[in-house]
Every structure is written in structure tokens, then in C-alpha cells.
Amino acid sequence: MDKYIKVPISNEDAGLLKAGDYVYITGTIYTARDAAHKRMVESLQKGEKLPFDIKNNIIYYMGPSPAREGKPIGSAGPTTASRMDKYTPALLDLGLVGMIGKGKRSKEVIDAMIRNRAVYFAAVGGAGAILSQRIKKAQVIAYDDLGTEAIRQLEVENFPVIVVIDSKGNNLYESVIKEFNKSEQTQVN
Q: What pLDDT is stored for residue 66 in this prediction?
């Protein structure tokens, strides 16, 4: 089912999203990959503030290519989410409500998602040039020394994603595999 959301998004609204929903995000989201996640968690351990208000926000696991002339950003495809897994539960416990990436998540992340009513979205890998067309503004807001891994604030309009894991722990990857196996079994018989 197609859903349109504006961010920031409440946990209640995130709870209405189901694994398999096609979602179009409009508003402000933030980029951060493993180096930025490591710094954010280290900052929290020192009692320092994060470089943006994480509550009710979405982090996109992406490191863009350089912007071409007249464009706010270059290719903007997702990176593998599992690289952030060791840092993610702490951020979810602070109010992070959504993550965009590709690939599977650990049990610890899924448990933290259920506990905090958060969702994990997938963006299509290999479609970075197309995804970048949905990004209207991009600005580095922290950790500039990390280059492509710096934290960016993005203004997106109808950014297309799919709910892979919903706030109840339903996992599209697992359900699709079960359906495929059931279909294969039916064809064999």
C-alpha cells in the first residue's frame, strides 16, 4: 500500500506503517554512516549533545557522490545498514524513529525498534542517481572532516522507500523468503 509521510514523524504514525508498504517521505532527513554513528555514540558517552535533534527523525545510511553543477547532491544510493547496527539501539532509545538503508538488521536493532516503535526502510540499491532527484537541498551540518561520511541535512520530496521491518518486528525479507519457499514447495508437489 502506498503511504505518504512528512518528517519528523511520531512513533504513533510510524506504528501505522507495515512491512511491505511503499512510502514516500517529504521533509528533513539526515545522512550518517558508520564513522558518523561512531562519533555520535562517543559524544553521547561523554555527555555531549548530538549535532541534530534525533527525536522523531530519520537517518539515511548514505554517502553521496559529489554534486554536479546546479544539483544539490550527487548519486545518493543507500549503504548496507548492518554496519551501523552496533550504534543503532542507543540512537533508537533516544527517539530515532526511522532508518533508511539496505540489507538485514541484527536482532538487537530489531528489538530496539519494537521497544521504541521505530521502522526500517529500504531504498533501492543501484538507483542512487534516480533517488538524488528527490533530494531538493543538501547541507553538511556536522563532521565535515569525514568527507562523504559527514552528517548532512537533506530536504526530500516524495523520497521512495519500502518498509522492510515495521515497529512490530514484521520483516519483509523473511516473509518474502517464506512465500517463495511455499511457492517452490507447491510447484514441486
A: 82
The answer to whether residue 63 is catalytic is no
Q: What is the pLDDT of residues 153-166, one digit of tens each?
A: 999 999 999 999 99
33, 37, 105, 134: which is the annotated catalytic residue?
A: 37
In the block, cell 542507543 appears at: 90
Q: What is the helix (H) or strand (E) element at residue 15, kind and residue range?
A: none
Q: What is the DSSP letter of 148?
A: G
pLDDT-derived band at 103, boundaries 50, 70, 90: very high
Q: What's the chain's Rg over C-alpha atoms? A: 17
33 vs 60: CA distance, rounded Å: 8
The amino acid present at 132, given as its one-letter code, is S
Mean pLDDT for the stretch of residues 155-182: 86
Q: What is the Cα–Cα distance from 163 to 175, expressed in whole angstroms?
A: 12
Q: Across the strands, what pairs with 59? A: 30, 99
* Three cell numbers written together for 150: 559527514
In DSSP notation, 29-42 reads EEE--HHHHHHHHH
Q: Which one-letter amino acid corresponds to residue 64?
A: P
Residue 59 and residue 30 in contact, taking contact as beta carbons nearer than 8 Å: yes
